[in-house]
Design a protein that fits this description.
Elements lengths: L1 H24 L3 E9 L2 E9 L2 E9 L14 H17 L1 H4 L2 E9 L7 E3 L4
Parallel strand pairs: 3-4
Antiparallel strand pairs: 1-2, 2-3, 4-5
Length: 120
């Protein structure tokens, strides 16, 4: 099982790197990747002007069971909000920006990334 987990983690890291490049190509500056606190994690935090985007990157090997978008559960949303509040409390300058939660979804290394803005 460890091999499968390592391969899965590797694919996840690659998906996050692709998502970060897409954000950068769209004029965002990546501020933080994989921000962790006790109650949650933020995949990518990026800024463009007065806009702070907190991006959740989701990779699914197929669109069965609703695909990547449906994998962002209510519990996951709560953890994202908790982690975002944690980050903003520790970086007050970021708290003054307009904050938006986006999802960047893909089904594989060669698949395009679907960018959903303001998902929460």
């Amino acid at each position: 099982m460890a091999i499968a987990t390592n391969e899965r983690q590797r694919r996840g890291v690659l998906a996050e790197a692709r998502a970060a490049r897409l954000l950068q190509q769209s004029g965002f500056r990546i501020l933080v990747r994989n921000y962790r606190c006790r109650g949650g994690e933020l995949d990518i935090v990026a800024r463009r002007g007065n806009l702070l985007v907190i991006a959740e990157v989701r990779l699914r090997s197929s669109s069965a069971f609703g695909g990547a978008a449906h994998s962002i559960s209510t519990a996951k949303r709560r953890r994202l909000l908790f982690a975002a509040r944690h980050l903003l409390a520790r970086r007050p300058a970021l708290a003054r920006l307009n904050v938006r939660f986006d999802a960047l979804l893909t089904c594989g290394a060669a698949a395009p990334i679907e960018w959903l803005e303001a998902v929460m």
